[in-house]
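I'm stuck. Please check this protein.
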Amino acid sequence: MPYLKTLLAAASLVLLAACGGSETAPPAEPEALPAADGDSVPQGTQAADTGFVRPEGLPETAIPVTDLDGSVYWVEARGEGRVALYSFTDDGQAGATAGTFAQLQDAYPTLDLSPLADQMALAEEVAAEKETGSGVDTLRAAQDGLVAATPGAQKALDLARLGPVMELTGPTLHHLVESMGGSFTMTREELTALLQEQTDGRFTATNAELNALIKGSGEGGITAEDLRLLLPKTQDAPPPKLDRDAPGKGREADDCPGLVYGSGKREICLPLGALSFADRVVSFTPGEKPSKAPFDFPENALGEPNYRNTYSADFISLGCDGVLVTQFTDNILVDVEGVDLYIFEIGPMVEKTLLAISSDGETWIEVGEIEGARSEVDIGPFVNKGDKFPFVRLTNASDACGGNHSGADIDAIAAVGAEIRLSLDSALLFDVGKYEIKPEAETALTELAAQLENYGADIRVTVEGHTDSTGSAASNQTLSENRARSVWDNLSGKISPVPEDVTIKGYGASRPVADNATEEGRAENRRVDILILPGKKGYLTE
């Protein structure tokens, strides 16, 4: 114990010097000093309201903050926009450093500084709570009073707002608030529409602001008016820093018939462009040591890649033994020459996953372990030519588990080898148990024929009939084949020239896309799919 007090006293001299007029950047890591023989860091006392144990000798004004891996540091505001940072390790070592908030943010980019802003705001909260208004009003009033009284406080608050887990889309914000015990009066879709109307569709806030938002909401939950109190800060926030492996938006290139995503070793050409990506989460099981919200939100693996940085909740971290099953709905995975599937696994570490694919969501083909800077897969050795797979399963196989980002981090799943999938509802096309086209289906079929014609005559077309699971397997098989043939007979009379490479298939109830245990699922399974492999006028050739 005497050693630690001496160490902190010496460190304080260094800190006080660093807090002077010179702008000396802190080291990339805390300056660690070895403990004396026989000494170790004492356990100290419980820090009020934090759950963390305060080491003895630490200034009472220092508060704990955490890194993305769960490491705990202690920070202390020193005025004029500067801060001191203390670190303690299990093996009896302590370290200290100091500098401006900007320097600290650069040296420790994954450190969550929002509790520091919370502490500064709470100094004025008692007085602010006497005023009327929402929980956000209270927090804003506290921050406004702090800024007026303390030099450098505005910069501290602004910089602290750049901490992790603060940049959210509508669905992710909805999920995070629910995980914090709050609720919305709006659906996810309504929340997304509000953000798109007021901002670029994204929302930024500190944990303190979200807690205040939840605390101040009425019995029915957070309203649009409550949310608008935070939107000015969202709109004024600086652009996010982009990690070097952020894929960015798809772009055209002379040597790619679709769109190119990523750069360098992670660049990939996707012939179907934005149609290439998984569209639906079938299931997600987080397993042991799941990621913390909002990084446990499975829908962040859908659609085009939109990862920006580790603070931006645009991806899912699978968690230890986490299993994610997704589905392609407007396209379907097929085997072509070369790469067939690409997994956008992001972050500073590329972690292992186990990949499996399925034609029905029940019987799985194990493709094996994938990892590396380019998570690309050729399914050719595992499948038969012409097989089609709407389902992809990813199971975390990484040992890096725990913390905010537990397990492999998935931003998007893309079918490189893919056919375009156009699905027609059997209820629109046929009467129950029949395969003759209904007159009221003609408009939809005419529109579909025009789409097919746009791809040219050198396309490969597969027409598949599907039923639900009611009725016998034999009758369903016959009905599905007859329906597929009726649809193509109708379409071929509306197309000129007619494609030559056409296959008609019936699958009965063997390839469901939804649960046959519900009426909604059975209705979704009663369908005719038109699968198109574009030729040279389109995107993809075998």
Notes: The longest strand covers residues 72-79. The chain has four domains: 2-111, 125-236, 251-416, 421-533. Residues 473-492 form the longest helix (20 residues).
